[in-house]
């Protein structure tokens, strides 16, 4: 993206008759009012405003069709949209929220049904344009990661408090007497969002990871504290508890990352149940690595989005869904 985008933002180009936003500047001003976007730098928002297409839908008209993968994001300007997948009601979306971010980021082949429940106006941004914004403006990508992490943490908490989130029993592993060397570290984190990542960003992540060793009863954090780091558990069990839920995390699991990436207060107390060995990673370092390695960042967003899709379907099957995205 070049500075031409900024010039276009202030051009006078009339759109369709009856359009809510006849110029790109009108779209930019509207995007500035959205709670999840208003604080971002102008560059990414200007690109969105320049490339967004205003769409109008009548009541009952389809926006997404189930036989087609979701290929764009719709910011709802006016009206209301119902989103379904596999015949399940996922959410009803109104302004100032949007639909499509999660399936687009997940690159899901499974289509969704999105239907206008009232006369509806949206600003549509294609998947290709969204990814170009992410690559060109890391602040926009970081904001997407933060919002997605918050949604995921909140969904996990809701499902777990209702007994709908299963966690496997922590496995027993030998206590590592000596420090964990680099090859062992690499083997331990090579999976999940890092399964197909090039070695270079993983080396950068591991170089700044701190090995921590805890004794039974040691507190990692208290509920409500600011979250600035997470840990890959190598050995032992971390007991997590709040008023609504309790769970245990063991070897090859990660604890605390989703909340820290979402800049959220800790949603539970975390205590070493046994001796624990873990790799501690700060959010600051993690974001620095994502900024340097776009494919890692997109892969991580896709991983979280697939998790979120799965949890959303689980909630819908149990009779619960989100009212807005």
What does the model show?
It is globular, with a radius of gyration of 22 Å. It has eleven helices and 16 strands. It has 325 residues and is of the alpha+beta class. The chain folds into two domains: 4-145, Jelly Rolls (Sandwich), CATH 2.60.120.10; 169-291, Jelly Rolls (Sandwich), CATH 2.60.120. The model is unreliable at 1-17 (pLDDT under 50).
Can you lay out the helices and strands and say which pair or pack?
Blueprint lengths: L3 H6 L14 H9 L9 H10 L1 E5 L4 E3 L7 E7 L1 E6 L2 E7 L3 E2 L1 H6 L6 E4 L3 E7 H10 L1 H24 L20 H8 L9 H9 L2 E5 L4 E3 L7 E7 L2 E4 L4 E4 L4 E2 L1 H5 L7 E4 L3 E7 H10 L1 H24 L8
Helix pairs in contact: 2-3, 3-5, 5-6, 6-11, 10-11
Summarize the structure.
The chain is of the alpha+beta class and 325 residues long. The chain contains eleven helices and 16 strands.
Q: Roughly how much helix do the residues carry, as a percent range?
A: 25-40%
- Low-confidence parts: 1-17
Count of runs of 4 or more consecutive helical residues? 11
- In CATH, what is the class of the largest domain? Mainly Beta
Mean pLDDT: 89
Largest sheet: 4 strands, antiparallel
Provide the structure class. alpha+beta
Q: Give me the Rg, rounded.
A: 22 Å
H/E topology pattern: HHHEEEEEEHEEHHHHEEEEEEHEEHH
Task: Tell me the number of strands.
Answer: 16
**By CATH's scheme, which homologous superfamily of the largest domain applies?**
Jelly Rolls
Q: What characteristic shape results from the CA principal axes?
A: globular
Q: Looking at the chains present, what oligomeric state does this protein adopt?
A: single chain
CATH architecture of the largest domain: Sandwich
């Amino acid at each position: 993206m070049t500075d031409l985008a900024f010039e276009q933002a202030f051009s006078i180009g009339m759109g369709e008759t009856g359009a809510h936003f006849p110029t790109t500047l009108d779209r930019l001003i509207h995007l500035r009012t959205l709670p999840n976007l208003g604080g971002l730098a102008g560059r990414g928002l200007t690109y969105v405003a320049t490339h967004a297409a205003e769409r109008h839908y009548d009541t009952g008209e389809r926006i997404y069709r189930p036989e087609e993968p979701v290929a764009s994001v719709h910011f709802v300007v006016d009206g209301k949209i119902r989103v379904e997948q596999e015949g399940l009601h996922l959410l009803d979306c109104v302004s100032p929220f949007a639909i499509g971010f999660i399936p687009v980021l997940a690159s899901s082949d499974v289509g969704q049904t999105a239907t206008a429940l009232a006369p509806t106006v949206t600003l549509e941004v294609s998947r290709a344009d969204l990814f170009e914004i992410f690559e060109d403006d890391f602040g926009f990508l970081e904001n997407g990661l933060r919002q997605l992490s918050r949604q995921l943490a909140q969904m996990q908490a809701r499902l777990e408090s209702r007994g709908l989130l299963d966690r496997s029993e922590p496995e027993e592993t030998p206590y590592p007497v000596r420090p964990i060397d680099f090859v062992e570290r690499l083997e331990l984190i090579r999976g999940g969002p890092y399964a197909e990542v090039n070695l270079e960003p993983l080396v950068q992540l591991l170089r700044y990871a701190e090995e921590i060793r805890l004794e039974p009863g040691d507190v990692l954090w208290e509920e409500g504290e600011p979250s600035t780091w997470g840990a890959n558990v190598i050995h032992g069990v971390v007991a997590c508890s709040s008023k609504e839920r309790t769970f245990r995390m063991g070897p090859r699991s990660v604890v605390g990352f989703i909340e820290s990436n979402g800049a959220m207060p800790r949603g539970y107390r975390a205590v070493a149940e046994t001796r624990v060995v873990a790799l501690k990673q700060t959010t600051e370092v993690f974001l620095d690595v994502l900024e340097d390695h776009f494919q890692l960042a997109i892969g991580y967003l896709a991983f979280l989005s697939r998790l979120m899709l799965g949890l959303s379907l689980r909630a819908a099957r149990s009779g619960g869904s989100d009212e807005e995205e």
